[in-house]
Amino acid sequence: MIAHADPDFVVDISRASSTAANLAASTEPHIGAHARGLDSDRLRADFARQGAFLYLEDFLPPAAAGQLAADARALLSEVNRNYLPGHKQGGSVSRHTIDRLAPFIAQLYRSKELIGWLERTCGEALQLSPEDDAHAYALYYYTRPGDHIGWHYDTSYYDGRRYTVLLGVIDDSSCRLDYELHTRNADVADEPGSVQIPPGGLVFFDGDKLRHRISPMGANEMRVSLTFEYVTNPNMRAWRRFVSNMKDAIAYFGFKQVFRQLSQRRAGRDAAGGTSGGTSSGTDGGTDGGTDGSTPGSRADGAGGTL
């Protein structure tokens, strides 16, 4: 039995997983029907014209959007908060915690209808991020005055490209996603923009190309977003993996969450007669939640989804 943020609300994990599977299965045809109803040719052209960026105000079915909001509120006690002066203030919940406590999100990430639509939009074959990538799917919480993230790119350390899907979950705030298109294309003038993403809204982009930020949170406000990360090549060199893990630990999920998860999975592979390379599935032994950290200095790029 797992106790959530509300001490009176206790859920049996096996029953929750079954419920999540049923909801994900019922959501799949709605995502497919909605995607087929969109003007795919126009959206592909818009995505390309905007330098690998697309915003849709209404994408997820209402039932799915409602479940995401419920999951986000239930995970409030699991949030790991971080503060990087001059760059970032806010909280995060990694895919490892989501796997244990919010299985609907993990199943939505794997939606064949969603992935198929994304592939048609960007024109590339997409793969799931490796199972030891804490950013593969993660929730980002803005719950205190001043919570924000400064201008940055989402730098990919994979050998191929990595695409981000940003979904609105809760938005009782004045925060906006501010962005600049074409900043790394000398042949096209920069194009600024700004959107406020409602629950169920979607942004799809290549983080290496999009300069963006989240504007500061006001008093008595709350914003939660969910990101999915898909890659064209899941390979990552060892030194890049180290840098990525350190950024995840310092700026997002905490050292316990990132490195204990890695050690548990490596121990499992060794016990099964495997090697220390590659990835495998595993479960999280806990979270580094409810803390505030201060880390001197930061760079204006991120190892994963930061919205």
Spans where pLDDT lies below 50 across 5 or more residues: 1-13, 275-303
Number of helices: 8
Which fold does the CATH topology refer to?
Answer: Jelly Rolls
CATH architecture: Sandwich
% residues in beta strands: 15-25%
SSE run? EEHHEHEEHHHEEEEEEEEEHHE
What is the overall silhouette? Answer: globular
Structural class, by secondary structure, is alpha+beta
Task: Identify the quaternary structure here.
Answer: single chain
Walk me through the structure.
The structure is a single chain. The chain has 307 residues and is α+β, with helices and mostly antiparallel strands. It has a single domain, classed as Jelly Rolls. The chain contains 8 helices and 15 strands. It has helices spanning 13-37, 40-49, 62-74, 95-101, 103-109, 112-122, 238-253, 255-271; strands at 2-3, 10-11, 53-56, 80-84, 88-93, 127-128, 137-142, 148-154, 162-172, 177-181, 191-195, 202-206, 211-214, 222-231, 301-302. The strands form 2 sheets. Strands 3, 4, 5, 6, 7, 8, 9, 10, 11, 12, 13, 14 and 15 form a 13-stranded mixed sheet that branches. A two-stranded antiparallel ribbon has the order 1-2. Strand 1 (2-3) and strand 2 form a beta hairpin. The longest helix is centred in the first third of the chain and has 25 residues, at 13-37. The protein is globular. The two termini are 31 Å apart. The relative contact order is 0.19.
